[in-house]
Specification:
alpha+beta, 2 domains, four-stranded mixed sheet, 4 strands, 8% strand, binds zinc ion
Length: 280
């Protein structure tokens, strides 16, 4: 993967990204578009995706989270960011971090629109086709769409993470994930019903979204189960450390938080069972 740095963040672009986007640009634009225009559109799309992921990465860095890199691939992007685990996970960290991507897109759309208006450059927005044929209008439109779509409060969009984090201020992380996933199924189901109204062809176009939601649902479900188990375990260690010095022999993660490990102590085992049954 070719790599470079933007504002200190390593960026990697998957080898298939450019070929896939070129094929898409050549198959979806009309014969009237020249090569330069199609290339400009590919550039606009990839730049907008990169800006979105950099927004996540830069805010994460400000939050004190470790940032691995930003990856751009054929179907989108990914910012690899350290995930804080219980008891260090905070809904506010997640909310600001998730909002950073779409906010970057909306800010860029506003900035490009403002500059175009200030220098008196006309933006053809009469029809989507006209807008997409002009690189500046395409940049504004792409960033508006990326920003808006990622604010929809449903997985797999960033808005799903925002919704889950807001729910987690009141509910457990596992419950919050369940509710957010249920909302996501309703939202995506609604979109499919709208698509079906426009014919089976349109419905087929939404299929990748369904596949992504399915993938997300499994991933988030497993993740939140593990999160819940770790939270229970660490709450036990925190509340029983004084009584059971053996707990200090547990292995620790790089942040000094205890990890489950074998401690042969019947009294401790009895305390663990009592703790679990007290939690219900
Ligand atoms: Zn995002």
């Amino acid at each position: 993967m070719p790599a470079f740095r933007v504002l200190g963040v390593p960026v990697r672009v998957h080898a298939a990204t450019l070929p896939v986007h070129l094929v898409l640009a050549w198959s979806f634009s009309s014969d009237g578009d020249d090569a330069l225009r199609r290339l400009a559109f590919v550039g606009v799309t990839l730049l907008s995706v990169l800006a979105h992921e950099l927004g996540h990465a830069l805010v994460a860095r400000r939050q004190g989270l470790a940032v691995g890199d930003v990856r751009v691939h054929a179907l989108g992007g990914l910012a690899r960011i350290e995930r804080r685990l219980p008891p260090e996970w905070r809904p506010s960290l997640e909310v600001w971090n998730a909002l950073a991507g779409p906010a970057t897109n909306l800010a860029l759309a506003a900035l490009a629109f403002g500059v175009a208006v200030a220098v008196g450059r006309a933006l053809p927005v009469d029809t989507p086709r006209a807008a997409w044929a002009d690189p500046v209008a395409a940049f504004v439109a792409t960033n508006l769409v990326l920003g808006a779509v990622n604010l929809v409060p449903a997985f797999p969009s960033d808005g799903g993470r925002v919704l889950r984090a807001l729910l987690a201020t009141r509910l457990s992380y596992l419950r919050s994930t369940q509710v957010a996933l249920a909302v996501s199924v309703v939202v995506v189901g609604g979109l499919l019903a709208l698509a079906l109204d426009r014919g089976w062809g349109t419905l087929l176009g939404w299929l990748p979204l369904v596949v992504m939601l399915g993938f997300y649902a499994v991933h988030e479900w497993r993740g939140s189960k593990a999160f819940d188990a770790l939270e229970t375990f660490r709450a036990f260690v925190a509340s029983h450390r004084a009584r059971f010095p053996a707990l200090d022999r547990l292995p620790k993660d790089p942040r000094g938080q205890p990890l489950p490990g074998p401690i042969d102590d019947p009294e401790l085992t009895a305390a663990w069972h009592a703790f679990l049954s007290a939690r219900g």
